User: Fold this.
Amino acid sequence: MTRFLIIATLALLCMFSPLTLHVAAEETQECANPDMIDPNCPTRPHIINCAGKYLDLNKNKKLERSELESAINGLPWYSRSILKIIGSVDKIMAKCDADGDDAIGMDTDMPATEETCLASCFKRKAFKGAFFPDCDEPHC
Assistant:
């Protein structure tokens, strides 16, 4: 079990390698807009939009428990350590499903759970890296 945790941690660290941060820093320096989005910290609206695009399979603007479970089950075994960071499906629902309908409404629950659901930059970056690493937002 310890070997698994070490491998999973290393895989997660590789997603946030210094090379990636260096490239992002170079892109930041070339940006003319001083109010730009920090490329090292995805915004909640960006995460919500990407979740809608990649995880909301029936396009009802809600991330249902079954859709979240499917997304997690679709991860490679070494990436499932993301659950140590963002929590189990039950914990995600407890933090993000404000109205208790077993679905995270992107237009309703996400604004209501700003303090509890993907509140930290670290969690947003981990969630994005695990489920939709190629979903980019404009930096300028």
Summary: Residues 103 and 131 are 18 Å apart (CA to CA). The beta strands are 62-64, 103-105. Confidence is low (pLDDT under 50) at residues 1-35.
